[in-house]
Amino acid sequence: MDPQSQTTSLQRLQNVEKRIVRVLELAGGVMDEMANPSGPRKELVNNHCSEFMQLIKDIQVTLREEIKSACEYRPFEKCDYVPRISNEICHKKLEYVIAQLDEMKQTIEGCRNAA
User: Fold this and answer.
1) Whole-model pTM?
2) Cα separation of 76 and 49, whole Å?
3) Helix (H) or strand (E) holding 92
4) Which residues contact 104 (CB under 8 A, 6 or more apart)?
5) DSSP letters along 16-69, please?
6) Which residue ranges does UniProt annotate as crossing the membrane (predicted)?
7) What is the pLDDT of residues 18-34, one digit of tens each?
């Protein structure tokens, strides 16, 4: 793997990280809106949710591509340490994001049930 493609891969993963931060900001914005005493603004919640879902899809596609690329790259025939560790890190990050999404879903459902 040449240095340029490594830089490109690193940049793509950094962009994923920025998207994850944005996803969390959107989720926080929706939670703030749901807690608004005068009630949530439907258009704002819908816009946040739409952007949230699009970013999740973009993150998923990019991570799949990066994982696939890491699996295809074998600088030494029997050495898969770097791709394996990269995949494990990506997997743990995805598990964390999924757990956070599940918690947000439960909170939203709790708010809906309370209303």
Assistant:
1) 0.55
2) 44
3) helix 81-114
4) 27, 30, 31
5) HHHHHHHHHHHHHHHHHHHT-TT---HHHHHHHHHHHHHHHHHHHHHHHHHHHH
6) none
7) 999 999 999 999 999 99
